[in-house]
Structures
1.
Amino acid sequence: MLSSTWRSRSTRGVLVIGAAASLVLSGCSDKSSDGGGGGNTDLSIQSVVQLDTAGKAVATTDAGAAADPAGDGKAKCAPLTLGMAGPLTGGNAALGINIIMGVKLALDQHNKANPDCQVSVKQFDTEGKPQIASQVIPTIVADPNIVALVGPTFSGETKATGQILSEAGMPTLTASATNPTLTQNGWKTFFRGLGNDNSQGPAVANYLTGEKGFKKICVVQDNTDYGAGLAQAFITAAGPAADASCGTSVKEGDKDFSAAVSKLSAAKPDAIFYAGYYAEAAPFVQQLRSGGVTAAFVSADGSNDPEFVRQAGSSSKDALLSCPCSPAPEKFAADYKALNGQAPGVYSVEGYDLTTILLKGIDAGKVTRAELVDYVRNYNGTGVARQYKWGETGELANIQIWMYQVK
């Protein structure tokens, strides 16, 4: 995607790592007074189906075959530090927090099993903003202890810092940045751990026009790199179903959507596709419902977080949310909650899988940035979410998209 509420605690030594319907992404229900959303809700984001880019259902990955960060327990290494960069404070903090909690679960399992190879994480808060990331990333690459990065989290901050990371030889594994152009910059160290919006947009468009039979869809996009790229991919794939006459734009940070609501109310679409983040999606859907707009509300990974449900309340009911991220299997969810005190969210599984890959490299004796870049580039293995094997540009070889629904 993506274009954050923890404080960083510095530790020594650094690696930076910028399916069935019963699976639940959030792992818990939201029970809160939603104010304008219409009273108490008992809703959660639940997985519905995994799709290919044509919008057709495909088989899910066997999580039981996933790589184990614990390895054989015999690893030996000098203390190393992993790093994570993304939004840990701000309006979309949950998206970064989900990732760092996944990172910490993989590290916890590894370190308990391997007393002679202890790896820690150092986290850097960018608030998801390119201008802040541009100040943070040089600090990361200048730290000789940091051998790889999980992050950055959002597409905009990744676009602003990818060249710096590439020139520094920093392994850069993103669990969430999905703008398609990120792998078209000639960066040598960038690896995307999930599908991009050129796969997500068409999968959702084809699902809505095919399986759901929607004939008229109004597309609303925010002004981020993520929102613009996702909206364009969706519009292209949806063809005439994406009605240009009712398409509209909003800005990141907006809270008053009355103009968009009025336009959409008059258009009477079958569905509204929102390309943006949950901080705006939540009040937007509340205002749509308060304004009498009953069209299906559809959004993507930027909105696919329990915070969307908590903030939107009952107005979020029946919303369809896509994501190239995977839902959490039962055992993963239980382990995650035991360590972090809350259920996994969007990108938690990806943060865990990417950290596991880096740990496997470290356990194999790959302890420099250059060695880890080479290790990841040649990696081919099963994770909790999917098969991980990258092409020359850092895109995954095999892509699927999940559809979720608020129920």
2.
Amino acid sequence: MTTATKVPVKPLGDRIVVQPLEAEQTTASGLVIPDTAKEKPQEGRVLAVGPGNWDEDGDKRIPLDVKEGDIVLYSKYGGTEVKYGGEEYLVLSARDVLAIIEK
């Protein structure tokens, strides 16, 4: 597994920063998909993870299940797209992450 690159965006609370992975360019049968017909990607690499939310008593943080470098599936329309330093990122709440992909 490759390590995540350092990003200038540090998430707060239960948020994570994800770099969406490129969508498929062709179908299984070899047809090229034009940019206008491509689906919004739902898979990405976690670049940064927030410290987690506080517990009910406010005594300690609840850590997140994901870590930097994980490949995750997330809600199709979840999160906020952010462009910073010429790069595009997606800032998601931990509840928008559906699964971690193990390769």
3.
Amino acid sequence: MRNLKEDHKGFSTILALALIPLSGFATDIYLPSLPAMAKDLNVSASAIQLTLVFFMFSLGISQIFIGSILDSFGRFKISIASLAVFSAASFVIALVPDIYVIYAMRIIQGIAIAFIVIAKRAYFVDLFKGDKLKSYISLFSIIWASAPIMAPFLGGYLEHSFGWKSNFYFLGGLSLLMLLLELRHSGETIKELHPFKFKAITNTYSNMLKSVDFTLGFVILGITFAIVIMFNLTSPFIIERIFGYSAITTGYSALLSGLSVMIGGITAKSMIKKPLAKKVGTAITIQLILALLMIFTSSLESNIYTLVIFTMGLNICGGFIYNIVLGYCLSRFSKNAGVASGLTGGGAYMVSALFSYSFVNIYAVKSQFLLGLANISLLAIVGIVFIIFNKYRLKN
């Protein structure tokens, strides 16, 4: 086991921070290319949307169990192997344009990304303590949120200039470069490997899932994020096929969508001392009003501006809710923070994947009106779940 050298610690830390948004790049960079992929592969919109759903679901379910594996077998070798697998899978997608091969590779990418990102989060816990650790942790959400802003913007230009395959060549090349830099500058950071005790780990997960407020918390996170994903899944087809704009415009729209989520999260941080129920309840109410306006105004005026403006409002509120409920879930089990983090993130990703894809296809979303209907249906569910969540939260 090659331990991290002290003189490599600075650059290794930069590499670790750079790898945290890789999951966002893998999710969002090819969103402007969805219509072109569907046309080139001769498949339906729903078939190509499944590539994102499979990635998110595998990323989500993997996160639940990975923390224990990394604690037992180390971070460095596993993250190196995962980078190699992710890079190879990216090149395979570009070189073998078959929808079923792409499905398989996206599942593999999701698992690999889960190992990489969680290993890099653990890196900071291994090496830093106190205020220094808190400072780095506060950077995580900002750095992670940068990917949904930058990735589709870059992906739109890549699609316009070189075609959809260039997105996956980019992902493959970027991860290969990071792999080489990791081999040169990084090393193992865990001081002591922990024995892998399946029964104890299972009991911890079981106790958490039996806590209704915690479980409903990540369900709220998942459905809230599903509203963001629904826009990501459908907007390329609406903007490019219905409104007649290019993939570059789709990239700009996704950039504004991602920026809105970040604004919501920053706003929530500034209101941290306000009562949770009042904050979240108000945000859900505003979302319901915006979704209704999205539906009713579509008969009067439906264009890229109304689509994006209403979506930005929904996403600001969504980012606000996500930040608040995530903080609650992560602090709910302070003695098992790593497991709680994996279960919260993994559970939320799986819920997002299932709800976003299901409602996109239930409503066959191809317009602002249908997207508004899908949004208001999900918000009604969030509202009901939040009422039950708050009831159990107050008990605890």
4.
Amino acid sequence: MSAAEGPLVVGVDTSTQSTKALVVDVATGRVVASGQAPHTVSSGAGRESDPRQWWDALCEALRQCGDAAHEAAAVSIGGQQHGLVTLDAQGEPVRPALLWNDVRSAPQARRLTEDLGGAKFWAERTGSVPAASFTVTKWAWLAENEPEAVRATRAVRLPHDYLTERLTGEGTTDRGDASGTGWWASSTEAYDPEILAHVGLDQALLPRVVRPGEVAGTVHRHDLPFSKGTLVAPGTGDNAAAALGLGLRPGTPVLSLGTSGTVYAVSRHRPADPTGTVAGFADAHGDWLPLACTLNCTLAVDRLAALLGLDREAVEPAGGVTLLPYLDGERTPNLPHAAGLLHGLRHDTTAGQILQAAYDGAVHALLAALDLVLDADADRSAPLLLIGGGARGTAWQQTVRRLSGRPVQVPEARELVALGAAAQAAGLLTGEDPAAVARRWDTARGPVLEPVERDGATMDRISGVLSDAAALLERGTD
């Protein structure tokens, strides 16, 4: 390892599929060491993971970082949002965590919305209308289906909270991740006693919400490659961490292409969308992060490519083919029981056209929500920041350009969640706003792809098929 110019920090991204750790030089933003280890996720009706896998993966990722991790002065955890982690009196998982993309709690989401004043109540109180991904719906599902697990639970955590607590020995979270639970009120920036009472959750089981810039604790374990007294930042959810990692200013739109797809922007105004399209999340440093999310993005398109026996880049102009790639149900639009739908096949339709239609269908919902995410005074001609695993794929880039009609900027930095966590850790040492740290590191630097004429006809065709097939999609395949 070459000599660093400033102190070192560790930023962690514990995602659905793996945990990554970066050791970053605070002075320059240079990544001096990195490590990564995988997780497993259950298949079938639910999507679950044993939280102990995340800890083992973190330990392995840090081991791969070598001596650099031992030199770090601070660490922060960015993690997948919404997951329900239930712990017993010894701090061990009661059962596997229910992950964000587990849609079994869709009936509970509907009932919670109806029981407590409807969508307008939830949007005004919490900033979001409950969807199956939200933690409050998962707790309601657990209480209904596994009451013995609820009775055994002595602490309720989110994925990033679980790892932070294992580092510090203290139960903490942050406003960004707490805002995705459904029981944290964005209107008061506190846990909501009415919602907690309705779902039978004692606030004493929840972590303390640490303020932006506050130290969550220090590393108290001796089995990790950290020095005694290493500071631990609050951490945050993955989207809020990526926003920090980009150094986002208000109004700059981001489209993230990962296992899920998201579109978001930082705003000075607290969001409250009663349609449920936009989740009114908090960000990690005092502003807001209105966000729309789709469950089906790169994973769904890759699955279609595999079914067709094609490389993921082997697309052809789709012509009149429409494919709604709702392989795991969907969140935007809110169709948790939906399955994929293909319309417009002809004798001369090619596999490459079907694959392009899958890309179009995945991007359509995100772009349709973009105007709802942005403030009214946002510059609609500003480049769209394209991030996530799909951002470097030519087919993804060209689809986003064609359907949006906007310039597209692809940051060169790859691990933006981990970089955002590192920037948050660096802020503890320097006193800077973490987003300002990331701007100093120039993390958003990357080529800008010029705009092309917007393909409004394809956007309209997909919207039409979606509207016409609404009853079929609501019914699913049951």
